[in-house]
Amino acid sequence: MFATDQRDLRTPRKHTAVRTVVFYVIFASLWIYFSDTLLAWFLSDPDQLTQAQTFKNGFFVAVTATLLYLYLSHCLQVQRNCEEAIEEEQDKTQQDIRERFKQLSTLFDSMNAVVYVADFTTYELLYVNQFTEQFFGQDWRGRKCYQYLQEGINHPCDFCTNSQLIINGEPGNPVVWEFLNTKNNRWYECIDNAIRWTDGRLVRLEVAQDITERKELEKIKDDLLSTMSHEMRTPLTAISGFAELLLNEPEVPEQQRRHVEIIYNEAEKLTELINRFLDVRRLKFDRARINYEYLSVLDLMEKAKNGCRDCKAHHHIKIECQADIQVYGNRQELTQAITQLLENACRYSPESGRISLTAQSSNRETSICVADQGLGIPKHELESIFNPFHRIDTGNTRSTGGVGLGLCLAKEVVTLHGGKMQVESISGQGSTFTIVLPKPVDRNNTLNVNTNDARQL
Fold first, then answer.
1. Residue 439: what are its φ and ψ, rounded to 5°?
2. Which of 49, 129, 377, 420 has its CA at a distance of 20 to 30 angstroms from the CA of residue 66?
3. pTM over 0.90
4. Are 79 and 139 in a shared domain?
């Protein structure tokens, strides 16, 4: 800021110097010309004229030297005043910066979180709060952040967020992430920001909150639910098996047969719920991708339609997809995701209405849309519907089945395939869910289909 102010002052100073020189040249030239002319009019003796010109030149030199002295003194005084004003402003600004830094330091020292500032280029630590010193030591000055905070690392961390914090040379959006520290083996949730330091350079500010206890509780909860789910499958299998045997017995009375059929159907629903929960857990914790192949989107749609259990006779599903559109992924998982969206559309369309299943392909991505004309989703619920066990708890939808795992499962599948899930909905008019998957690059494995063939069902 101060360098900019000084550059702004140079331009008027340069213009003043130029004007002074021009004024001096004009004044000196006019003085010499007119003074010599006047002396030549009044003095005809050459000796007297020479003496007069000598006196005149001496007088001119004395006057100009005096004026130059006064002018330079004035300029130097003005310059000294400007420099004093700039120094005073710099001192005031530096004092304000120190006061603000002291306030921020006091604030950060009161936090039970790791807070530090590091240079973007050299990774040198510029500040750590007291909480960080207590856990990682007080010998942080002059050290690199990865050497001070990590164990056995002598180079910038592979997970460093520096490249994500600066956009076109300016601070970008904060980056939130989690990692397991190698020095104390504790989990942290980190919030990284690019900020301007006291000297104007960009630095990284990181605030890391210890979430080890939360991670342990989540693991205990997941392990408990997983164990319970696995243990529940054994009695449910027995219930379903014996109920199926009773249904196949011809001697069972009709009234008891209806009761057994209810037992069988409810056991199957509970088994499906447990399997769905286990699938969600598997997708969240097992990120390995296997059995990927090039798949016909039309085949996936038809299989999802045939496997949709919540669709009734009054639900009309229309498929629109060109036969050559394909995606790269796991057949079972993608079919499961599309099936879930269809079941969701049927479940929330109790008064029938058209349900459309369409696919479009571009040079970069393939979109699979499931649209219905059902109850719709309130606007404030759109950001929460993909959370596990989330239900739209309104009077119109309490009678619908499910526990809120289907959409979570579908989104996990799409995310693991490098895609994204989008939703648009108007309450009372219907919803549109869109699966966007990246376009397959290797065209050597394309399906053997007629590119001009398109089918509508």
1. -70, 135
2. 49
3. no
4. no
